[in-house]
Every structure is written in structure tokens, then in C-alpha cells.
Amino acid sequence: SDLARLQELARARRVALLPAVTGLAARLLSDTRGDAEEALRRMLVAQDWRLEYLAEGPVTDASVAEDLQHGVVYFAGRDSCCRPALIARPARTPLSMCNEAGTHKLTRVLFFCMEYFLRYMAVPGKVENLSVILDLKDLTLKQLPLNALMGVKQVMSQQYVGVVFRFYICNMPFMLRAVSSIVQAWMTERQRQKIVFIRDAADLQRDFALHQLESDLGGTRDVLTSFFPFPLPQGPFEAGARGGPHPDAVPGLHAALTDAGARGRPL
Predict the structure, then answer these.
(1) pLDDT at residue 267 is higher than 60
(2) What number of CA atoms fall less than 13 Å from residue 198's CA on the CB side?
């Protein structure tokens, strides 16, 4: 198999990989269409980046707590297949963070969210992807530096290839359509196929229960003002469901997923 060839190649070259990087193997083999050489090369690039980025220690909830509370990036709900929805609202970025230092902070928030997903929300063989809802309402060009977008693209394509199932783009301002074309030009064909432009807020109801969405995104939930711990409502998750969250749902099931289980290893 492709995976066996990749494992043999790594052994032959005496390559040691972090657990977080070995988890990329199947996704990279899919992205490279089974090219074990290229997959291993990209795994090593991902590992080098990760070791450098985390040289001063892990990105903890405490270290990003203040920046999470701006509500620029957060999890809030799941779609009809239980994929978590990562909400991104760049217009909420304070002007004081529209600079290189601010970009670094927001990249750390995104990194934290993605690592949280892989450890506590993904269930190997069941829920292996997330969806991104990108709300561009009230966004100005000053809040959208292209160098920041390139940094985000680098992180996502290196560390989280194949993790995003779909990008929902909401409230696209006319003046940003040219920027959108530039961003899409940076994407692969596979990535472009995942983009869905939402013309009406009700469009998201085709994939989400209404109580899983905030009211300004076509749901029945109040617009959130607190963002961590991530405000994830209970099921049901059926698309278009209007009955609200189930009152007897068991909370805190993420605590049952072990480190080994999160990597797909049998208990």
C-alpha cells in the first residue's frame, strides 16, 4: 500500500517523526496521489516548521485566551455530519492587531484551534474534517493584509492538509472580490473545489441544524460574545432541524478520547 511504502522509505532513511507529523501521512499521500517521496519530504518540512514554531513551548489555552476573546476565530457548532464549524470573522480584528505582531497573534490562535480540533474534536474514522465559515461582513482592506493571508495559507497547507472539508464564504463585500481572486489563485484545484459562496444566510441551513448557527448566519442562536471554552451546543445535528439542542445530551465526551485514540490507535 502507499502507506506501507511511505513507512519503508522513512525506515530506510532513518527518519524520526513527531506523532503530530506522522498523523499527516494518510492526508499527504492522498494530496500527493500516492507519491511517498513527496509525502515524506512534506512531512519533514512540516516537522521543521513545527519544531521552530514551538521552540519556546506549546501554544496553550492560557497563552491565547485574551486573543481568542476577540471572536475572530472560534469553534461554534457542528454540521450534519458532526464536523465542527470553525467561524472566522476577520472584521473583528482590532486595528491595533492589523500589523505583523497582530498577525503573529492571530496565527497562534488559529494554530491553537486546529490543534484543539485534532486532539479533542476529531474522531479517527468518524469525524476527520472541519468546515470553515468565513464571514467577511464589514471587513476593510486594512484588516486583510495579503502577507497575513500567505502566512495562514502556509500553516494550513503544511500542517493541516486535507483537514478542511468545506469553506463557506459569507457576506463577500464587492471591493474584496479582486482580493478573493488573488487568494483563489494561490489555492490548488482541490482547495478551490471546497469553496461555497453563501448568497443567503438560509443556505447554511442545508448543512446545519438551526441551533448550531448564530442568528446572523441563518440560525436561531444568539450572536456569541464569549468564545472559549468553545461554545458547542448539543445535537441533534440534522440539517435544517429546528427543535433546538437536546436537553439530556451527555456533556464532556471529548474527555473520553485519549492521546492514542486521537491518533487512531486502538485502546
Answers:
(1) no
(2) 23
Q: Report the amino acid identity of residue 103.
A: T
66-244 CATH: 3.40.525.10
Angstrom distance (rounded) from CA 163 to CA 152: 14
For the ranges 43-57, 89-103, 195-209, the lowest mean pLDDT is seen at 89-103
CB 131 within 8 A of CB 83: yes
pLDDT in tens, 89-103: 988 988 887 777 888
Q: Which residues of 194-212 are buried (b: 16+ CB within 10 A; e: fewer)?
A: bbbebeebeebbebbbbbb
Sole residue written with cell 440534522: 238
Domain coordinates in residue numbering, the chain: 2-53, 66-244
CA distance 84 to 121: 7
Give SS3 for 221.
strand
pLDDT of residue 254: 78
**Does the reported pTM lie above 0.85?**
yes
> Coil, strand, or helix at residue 104?
helix
In the sheet with 73-78, reading across from the earlier edge strand, the strands are: 73-78, 84-88, 130-135, 164-170, 195-198
Angle ∠(188,193,195) on CA atoms, nearest 5: 105
